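Task 17 of the worksheet. Students: predict the tertiary structure of the chain below and write it out as structure tokens. Keep your answer in the requested format; marks are given for formatting as well as content.
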Amino acid sequence: MRQTTKQIAKLKSPLRLRFIATGESLHHADKICKRPARSGAMLVLVAIMMVGFMMTIALSVDIAQMHLTKTELRTATDAASKAAATTLAETMSHDQAIKRGQEIAAANSVNNEPLQLSASDFKFGNATLSETGKFEFQQDMQPYNTVQVTGRRSEQARSGAVPLFFGGLTGVDFFETESTAAATYIERDVVLVVDRSGSMYGSKFSDLISAIMTFTETLEETPVEEHVGLASYAEYASTDVSLTPNLNRINQGVGSLNLGGWTSVSRGMKAGNQIMQGGRNAKFVERTMIVMTDGRHNRGPNPERITRRLHENGITIHTITFGPDADRSRMAGIARLGGGRHYHADNGIQLEEIYREIALTLSTIMTQ
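Model answer:
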């Protein structure tokens, strides 16, 4: 194929010369010569897409960090307020309540750092149950029964704001958040359900008497007036002491129990419920049952079925197992069904500490 001088003058690449020499179309050569330009444009597009992809990943990581920080801050603030309220109930000292709240807050990590609280983060007041069923907090109102705590991760807070992993890419270097929690110690009706089966003979029963005395003495030291009742069980159960603010009657009731027989946890719980139904209006008090055993349920109805019914009626059930032969697994399951906690004691000293711990935490709940 002939090529004009004008066409030859337009040649700017060895590739076009090759096409002329072989007689191929210049139009086809031009199409081939233009391909590198299209490839370059695609590389630019891929680069832009990669930048967008990396920005999306960075944003996702930072958002996940924000959510985790909020959750950790809420947990730490809740723990601080509950610890402060418990200490306030125990000592009636604002300073000691603040100190304890700060200690517990610092024991909780928020974004891998201890939460530091200032004294100004603690507010004291009174919370009462309204007709709507919610607690209403009024700061500085006496008698003090509530501690409200505000946990912060901000520039002005002691712990500072939270640095984000990819702040340099997103243009937001720090994240600020806060959480407020209030814990209130309130009046409760409490029924102790204790095991008086044959396996409780000897030192175990002496340990139980001492532990119950520790429980009542601890309650006497709090500003809240708890009403406590006593039920006991072996193969069959009995209602030994009705709900009363006179806690010395509980000590006397435990000391006069007669031991012997098999073990029916469910019948003990039913007897405890009989006592509970004779208590104060459930709208104005929290109702708690503490079930203790050193053995295994082997008589009477299924205790899990009784637990479900009691919890549906607003009773929180804690369980305590004592000694190596106690059915820890089953009693832990009963506590879960009852919305409470399970405790285990290997000896009398641990049993006393458990009853003391329960007494201190009984009258404190989260209200905000």
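Marker's comment: The CA atoms of residues 220 and 247 lie 8 Å apart. The first strand starts at residue 109 and ends at 110.
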